[in-house]
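Annual report, structural modelling task.

Input specification for the adenosine-5'-triphosphate complex:
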Amino acid sequence: MTTILSIRDLRKSYADGFEALKGVSLDIREGEILALLGPNGAGKTTLISTVCGITTPTSGSVTVGGHDIQSDYRAARRMIGLVPQEIALEPFEKVMNTVRFSRGLFGKRANDGRIEEVLRKLSLWDKRRNAIKELSGGMKRRVLIAKALAHDPRVLFLDEPTAGVDVELRKDMWEIVAELKAAGVTIILTTHYIEEAEAIADRIGVINKGELLLVEDKAKLMARMGRKQLDVLLTRPIAEIPASLARHNLSLGAAGDVLIYSYDTHADRTGITALLNDVAQAGLVLRDVVTRQSSLEEIFVTLVKGETQ
Ligand SMILES: Nc1ncnc2c1ncn2[C@@H]1O[C@H](COP(=O)(O)OP(=O)(O)OP(=O)(O)O)[C@@H](O)[C@H]1O
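The model returned the following structure:
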């Protein structure tokens, strides 16, 4: 698969000396959707801003489609679209003009047919003659996307695209992202919503304190996430797990009164029925059973916590 965006040992120290990126390296494949997860202040926006040429890196390099973002910035920028986190739009400007203007900024020749397509896709066509200030918050977000798409970028960055939007608009956004992917656009989005990453990403990257902790295929992470734990609480502690239960791969809690069973929720059979039968056959009496799901969120929290220790 072709690499469209290559980030090498990217570092960013702000004027006050704060190191927001501590050597991030990442290759992004053409046509994929990568979700970047990270707590507040992790460096997600700094990373996106640097790649998009809004922030200057302290060191390291970034190429987009082979174009260096510093020495060949015009060509690099033309390939990129950015939907920023904050809504910064001219309130009195008309929707159509705002989007037209964005296209012009990238030196692309005017193409109202294309602008119409983009506005229709984002359900903004009926609002094209309205001033920005007459739009709802959700529509303003759509305008931000329309602006970012106006020059037909190959790589689209979405910084928290669905923060504070309603469920319907979130679903619409996901659909738009899926359509763009189908059209071959590479998408990098930051999000705080784990379910958003689950719903639309091909790969997931976790960033914390300026460092990329993990980049992994979502399917693999989901497999990890699919693990569930069943705690079988016993009325009386036991010294060891009976041999008749060996096939269930159980572990025994420290106090000897909990049998811990880990299983895959995606498997056809969880093995719970057989386990509980065997537990009863072994003459053990249950006090309670408790299940616990290890989620992507937990994996994320564990990773981020591990870093701070
Ligand atoms: N201009 C600046 N000068 C100094 N420090 C900055 C500047 N911009 C950002 N930072 C700091 O860099 C760190 C990373 O900020 P950044 O906005 O990249 O985080 P983020 O992961 O996008 O967070 P959030 O999820 O809150 O949007 C933060 O500690 C922030 O305070």
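The chain has ten helices and 14 strands.
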